[in-house]
């Protein structure tokens, strides 16, 4: 017996087990693949009888699965000589099961998103009423559930920034950048947090990284210029403003920054 037939026989023998574990898709796939293997390969009489029994039993078990009837109203029957019809029916079943899995996954994602937004609203209320410690505790609990969500970390950081919690904002933005290093918005926000903290040298380094990723963003250079304004590095401020204007000649705020820097240099 070929390796494919041996594998198919093993899978067919597991169909009942899959169904007990409510793994309907695996059971249907095993029956589908078993039928194809049976049709592809010649079998000795005893092997054929064994396979026929396995296919008949597997079809019966699958057809009787209670959850199958919820998603697929078409009856499944095995009859020697009508294997190809069953294969086509199983293809339809597998498509429907995959669609059902996709729908369930989307429902789960929607539910998680609603939960996330509800928690964010609760925390914003705490921040608005200066219950910062409570807000941080809820944020930390939320982040433990969505630890790989860079946009959530950025959202939380933006709320921290508005509340004046610059260190907390920096921590979240540093993690967001690690998860999504190509997102320029995160660099602009972390630069703002570091500027508010007075860590101008660190802010400069983050903006340098950002320039390597997206050096054609005029706002990137303008925000770097704001760091230099607070740092009183007027020559560097002027260069940053010039770069912003080079990329966007109509950038009025960059024009004002350049004029201010030149005035301080004079």
List the helices and strands and how they pair.
Blueprint: H1 3-13, H2 15-20, H3 24-40, H4 45-63, H5 66-71, H6 83-128, H7 132-145, H8 150-162, H9 166-179, H10 184-197, H11 200-213, H12 218-231, H13 234-247, H14 252-265
Principal-axes shape call: elongated
Distance between the termini: 91 Å
**What is the CATH homology-level superfamily of the largest domain?**
Tetratricopeptide repeat domain
**How much beta, percentage-wise?**
under 5%
Pattern of helices and strands: HHHHHHHHHHHHHH
Number of domains: 2
Low-confidence stretches: none
CATH architecture classification of the largest domain: Alpha Horseshoe
Description:
- The protein has 266 residues and is mainly α.
- The protein folds into 2 domains: 3-104; 148-265, Tetratricopeptide repeat domain (Serine Threonine Protein Phosphatase 5, Tetratricopeptide repeat), CATH 1.25.40.10.
- Helices cover 81% and strands 0% of the residues.
């Amino acid at each position: 017996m070929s390796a494919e037939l041996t594998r198919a026989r093993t899978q067919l023998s597991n169909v009942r087990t899959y169904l007990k574990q409510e793994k309907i898709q695996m059971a249907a796939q095993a029956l589908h693949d078993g039928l194809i293997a049976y049709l592809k390969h010649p079998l000795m009489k005893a092997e054929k009888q064994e396979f026929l029994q396995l296919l008949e039993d597997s079809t019966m078990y699958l057809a009787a699965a209670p959850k199958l009837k919820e998603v697929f109203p078409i009856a499944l029957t095995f009859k020697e000589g009508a294997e190809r019809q069953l294969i086509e029916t199983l293809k339809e079943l597998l498509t429907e099961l995959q669609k059902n899995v996709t729908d369930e996954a989307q429902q789960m994602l929607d539910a998680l998103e609603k939960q996330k937004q509800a928690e964010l609203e609760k925390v914003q209320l705490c921040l608005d009423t200066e219950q910062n410690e409570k807000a941080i505790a809820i944020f930390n609990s939320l982040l433990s559930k969505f630890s790989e969500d860079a946009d959530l970390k950025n959202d939380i950081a933006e709320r921290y920034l508005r509340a004046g919690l610059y260190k907390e904002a920096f921590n979240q933005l540093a993690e967001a950048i690690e998860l999504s290093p190509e997102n320029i918005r995160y660099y602009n926000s972390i630069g703002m947090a570091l500027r508010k903290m007075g860590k101008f040298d660190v802010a400069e380094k983050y903006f340098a990284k950002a320039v390597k990723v997206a050096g054609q963003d005029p706002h990137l250079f303008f925000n770097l210029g704001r760091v230099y304004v607070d740092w009183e590095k007027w020559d560097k401020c002027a260069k940053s403003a010039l770069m912003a204007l080079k990329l966007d000649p109509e950038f009025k705020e960059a024009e004002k920054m350049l004029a201010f820097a030149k005035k301080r240099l004079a």
